[in-house]
Amino acid sequence: MQTDYAGTAVAEADALTDPGFKASLWRWRWILGYLFIAWGLAAQIPSYLPMAPAESLGGQPIAWALSPGISANLDGDKLFWEAQRPGEHWASRALAVPDAAEFVRVSFCLAGDAPPDTAAVLLASVREGRLDFNRQYRVNSFYSGLAGECFDEPIPRRTGDGPAVLQIQLLSAPAALSLSALEVGALRENPVWRLSRMAMLVLGVVLLALLFKDYRHARPRLLAGAGLITVLGILFGCCVSVSLKADIYALLTGGRSIDAKVSMQALLQTQFPLGGFSIFTFLHAVLFCGATFFLGLARRHAWWDMVMLAPMTETMQLFVPGRGPGTRDMLVDWCGVALALLLVVLLRRSQRVRTFLKY
């Protein structure tokens, strides 16, 4: 009978450095408590305070600049857009935003059903002489909009941002969109919330540092170190502000913008580009896959830590201005974990890999 010494050595190393699945689950008890407190704070403390009463846009149809082929009608506080000709159509209007405003809140309700991919509501700000689409916000694209459904989106601004442009796009024709209670308001961050979110971000990072510190003793150290560095990249990505995230995106992609030195009327007649698959969504999967792969080769049950890291990082985004948790992002994270887990299981069956892992 042939003895698999490499496999035995790997098993012994796992037994010494891997706490096991139940122990791994127990290690996350403090994180679960953090998640409970975080969502409680988010529900109880208002994040923003209004600087002035919100401005209603429903009774001002004449202020909208319309593309050819789209018509607008007013019915009380409701705005109704309709496009009959083929192609994409839009309605735009300029918004005067106070310099001291830290956020712009766009809110509205659907006065009628909106089929999937019927329309999009977008907002972009003029900054440094350009209308910046790297910081464009797709408030909603009505993937399943029903009459009476309401939407509320606080959109962050930076010092130096000038006027904003709100645009409503009809993405197909014939198409119609009816909105009520369409309002825009200037906001500032609640000082109590600012202190709370800063404390929660620091606490979250400390808890994760304590949880992952045991990987310093995992073998091989090179793989464990690579995994920990990748986890640091994940934490940086989840805690970075939306403005810095937009700057990084512009650096990686070359950026998208329009010269705003032309007249505002010319800007209002320009259709906003719609963003596609975000590079950051792709990085979610890559980073979680990489961290799970490296740590999974160093410790057998590392996949569980990465599964739990996904909701933790999404929750921490509650405390980053302009950011927020996303179910889609968490699912993308888990897809990266699942792919890495499959690769780790296959590699651990290899004699050469087991021989390497015993060191």
Contiguous uncertain segments of 5+ residues: 5-13
How does the major sheet shape up? 7 strands, antiparallel
Alpha-carbon distance between the termini? Answer: 25 Å
Count of helical segments? 11
Q: Report strand %.
A: 15-25%
Percent in helix: 40-55%
* Average pLDDT rating: 81
- SSE class: alpha+beta
Count of strand segments = 14
Q: What general outline do the C-alpha atoms trace?
A: elongated
Number of domains: 2
CA radius of gyration is: 25 Å
SSE arrangement, N to C: HHHEEEEEEEEEEEEEHHHEHHHHH
Organism: Congregibacter variabilis
Transmembrane segments: 31-49, 192-211, 223-244, 274-295, 331-348
Protein name: VanZ family protein
Keywords: Membrane, Transmembrane, Transmembrane helix
Characterization of this structure:
This protein is of the alpha+beta class and 359 residues long. It folds into two domains: 5-44 and 191-357, no CATH class; 50-188, Jelly Rolls, CATH 2.60.120. It contains eleven helices and 14 strands. The chain has helices at 5-17, 21-27, 29-44, 191-212, 221-239, 242-253, 264-268, 279-298, 302-316, 327-348, 351-357, and strands spanning 48-50, 55-56, 65-66, 70-75, 78-83, 89-95, 103-110, 119-127, 130-132, 137-140, 150-156, 161-170, 175-189, 257-259. Strands 1, 2, 4, 5, 7, 11 and 13 form a seven-stranded antiparallel β-sheet that branches. A hairpin with a 2-residue loop joins strand 4 (70-75) and strand 5. Helix 8 runs antiparallel to helix 9 (302-316). The protein is elongated, with a radius of gyration of 25 Å. It starts with a helix and ends with a helix.
